[in-house]
């Protein structure tokens, strides 16, 4: 994984504490979200703090968008680093209203260097009606939107997001996720995102960094690494991009076209032609050798077996849709053997994936 020329991040970081050592070489591409995953204590938040200049004893090298933040001769202080940081608890200033919190981020940048306009960010995050509100009266989701807006108004060369949804309830998480999804399309800065939720990572990340014991175990495209990270995690999921093509109001369903295949999902309140993201968990996918014409499962998609990963409970199958989007299926050892998918020649075989349950989120529209 190479950092995009001029926009990405290159870092070589060494930090030693009693009982823990961070030793990381990292390249983060611009124009996308890179998620950092790993068990508790792996060093995920410490990595972000090092990049932000919040760890005094870190050594190594950091170059962001061509500017050196850290090397053997200098360590740029945090207030001089062009970065935005969104914390788990939002960390808003209680003595300021929403407008004041947003303006604080904007004032960090000289006027002629600002890349994000105040009115544009406010409109995008739908904060117009909150500007005069005190932050202590905001909901958790509203607070995170304000924190994200404040970070973006600092016109960052790097955006750090640490467990942004972990303190929110399920409904609030679903409302915030579309804004996070849209970040790469609206703001060019690379985004480094930390989360324990593989559902969240599957939906947001293009690239993945897997930390264990302060070191990078794997780094690369999320679609390739998620099965490794999620091999013992029930949250392993795939995010498929599609287009909303029909509403079936009598059935409470909408139809989403994914690579020429129709998926039926719960009714989506969005206009036809809107983009949609389908979240499909590996535990909700079964595979068959032939198409099924008589089943209560509505969603069946032709796929090609790209890879088989054996895990303790059986196997994870990596399945490619007709245009190369990837699904995962978790099956037992017995099923693997009965379908003859345990043989090397099975890779490349045509199969049918039956999807029992699909989560859906419209892209480009906002939940109220």
UniProtKB/TrEMBL annotation:
Residues 6-238 form the ABC transporter domain. Gene3D superfamilies: 2.40.50.100, P-loop containing nucleotide triphosphate hydrolases. Pfam families: ABC_tran. SUPFAM superfamilies: MOP-like, P-loop containing nucleoside triphosphate hydrolases. GO terms for cellular component: membrane. GO terms for molecular function: ABC-type transporter activity; ATP binding; ATP hydrolysis activity; molybdate ion transmembrane transporter activity. Residues 294-364 form the Mop domain. Keywords: ATP-binding, Molybdenum, Nucleotide-binding, Transport. SMART domains: AAA. InterPro entries: AAA+_ATPase, ABC_transporter-like_ATP-bd, ABC_transporter-like_CS, Mo/tungstate-bd_C_term_dom, ModC_ABC_ATP-bd, Molybdenum_import_ModC, Mop_domain, P-loop_NTPase. PANTHER family: ABC TRANSPORTER I FAMILY MEMBER 10, MOLYBDENUM IMPORT ATP-BINDING PROTEIN MODC 2. This is Sulfate/thiosulfate import ATP-binding protein CysA. It comes from Rohdeia mirabilis. The gene is cysA_2.
């Amino acid at each position: 994984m190479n950092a995009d020329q001029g926009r990405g991040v290159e870092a070589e970081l060494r930090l030693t504490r009693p009982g823990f050592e961070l030793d990381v070489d990292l390249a983060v591409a611009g124009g996308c979200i890179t998620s950092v995953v790993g068990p508790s204590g792996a060093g995920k938040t410490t990595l972000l703090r090092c990049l932000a200049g919040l760890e005094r004893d870190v050594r190594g090298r950091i170059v962001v968008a061509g500017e050196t933040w850290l090397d053997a001769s200098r360590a740029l202080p945090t207030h001089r680093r062009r970065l935005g940081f969104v914390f788990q608890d939002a960390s808003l200033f209680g003595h300021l209203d929403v407008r004041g919190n947003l303006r604080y981020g904007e004032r960090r940048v000289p006027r002629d260097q600002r890349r994000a306009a105040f009115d544009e960010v406010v409109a995008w995050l739908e904060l117009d009606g909150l500007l005069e509100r005190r932050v202590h009266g905001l909901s958790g989701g509203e607070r995170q939107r304000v924190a994200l807006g404040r970070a973006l108004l600092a016109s960052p060369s790097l955006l750090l997001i640490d467990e942004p949804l972990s303190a929110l309830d399920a409904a609030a998480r679903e409302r915030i996720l579309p804004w996070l999804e849209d970040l790469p399309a609206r703001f060019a800065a690379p985004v480094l995102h930390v989360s324990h939720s593989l559902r969240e990572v599957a939906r947001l990340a293009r690239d993945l960094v897997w930390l264990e014991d302060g070191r990078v175990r794997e780094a690369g495209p999320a679609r390739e690494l998620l099965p490794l990270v999620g091999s013992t995690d029930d949250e392993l999921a795939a995010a498929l991009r599609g287009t909303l093509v029909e509403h079936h109001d009598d059935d409470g369903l909408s139809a989403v076209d994914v690579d020429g295949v129709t998926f039926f999902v719960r009714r989506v309140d969005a206009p036809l032609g809107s983009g949609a993201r389908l979240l499909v968990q590996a535990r909700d996918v079964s595979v068959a050798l032939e198409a099924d014409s008589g089943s209560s499962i509505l969603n069946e998609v032709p796929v090609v077996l790209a890879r088989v990963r054996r895990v303790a409970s059986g196997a994870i199958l990596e399945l490619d849709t007709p245009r190369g989007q990837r699904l995962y299926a978790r099956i037992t050892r017995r099923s693997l053997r009965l379908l003859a998918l345990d043989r090397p020649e099975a890779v490349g075989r045509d199969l049918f994936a039956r999807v029992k349950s699909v989560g859906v989120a419209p892209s480009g529209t906002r939940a109220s």
